[in-house]
Amino acid sequence: QVQLVESGGGLVQAGGSLRLSCAASGRTFSGVNMGWFRQAPGKEREFVAMIDWSGGSTSYADSVKGRFTVSRDNAKNTVYLQMNSLKPEDTAAYYCNTAGRTWNWGQGTQVTVSS
User: Fold this and answer.
1) What is the pLDDT of residues 10-24, one digit of tens each?
2) Contact 10, 90 (CB under 8 A)
3) What is the 3-state secondary structure (H, E, C) of the chain?
4) Strand partners, 37
5) How far apart are CA 69 and CA 51, in angstroms?
6) Residue 19: partners with Cβ closer than 8 Å, 6 or more residues away
7) Residues contacting residue 99 through CB under 8 Å, at least 6 positions apart
8) I need a surface site. Which of 21, 29, 92, 96 has the fewest CB within 10 A?
9) CB under 8 Å to 22, separation ≥6 — which residues?
10) Which residues touch 59 (CB under 8 Å, ≥6 apart)?
11) Phi, psi angles (nearest 5°) of residue 28
């Protein structure tokens, strides 16, 4: 049974930065394309970023392109999301999962950006 644990969220002013981490227990990330997703109150969960199993290929939602960077450390079984130039509209709970959303969701980590 895979357990995903996201961390690193918090309250930050617009223009600030945060680095999110996602660790897995019970299953290795190796060989798995991983993604970051977010859900704002009253909205559907949406795609944010994806990184392939090797770390050699990434993709981003248009809304975060150029501001967010996804990376991974397979030896540590951890995926990261570096978020820079944060905007109030980035406020949401952030989650990681496989790119196809096939594992059980974790609790997420809340990111709140004040204007």
Assistant:
1) 999 999 999 999 999
2) no
3) CCEEEEECCEEEECCCCEEEEEEEECCCCCCCCEEEEEECCCCCCEEEEEECCCCCCEEECCCCCCCEEEEEECCCCEEEEEECCCCHHHCEEEEEEECCCCCCCCCCEEEEEEC
4) 47, 95
5) 10
6) 8, 80, 81, 82, 83
7) 32, 33, 34, 35, 50
8) 21
9) 4, 5, 6, 7, 34, 36, 78, 79, 80, 81, 96, 106
10) 49, 50
11) -85, 150
Q: How far is CA 14 from CA 2, 17, 30, 105, in A?
A: 34, 9, 35, 28
Is 39 buried (19+), middle (13-18) or exposed (0-12) by CB count in 10 A? Answer: middle
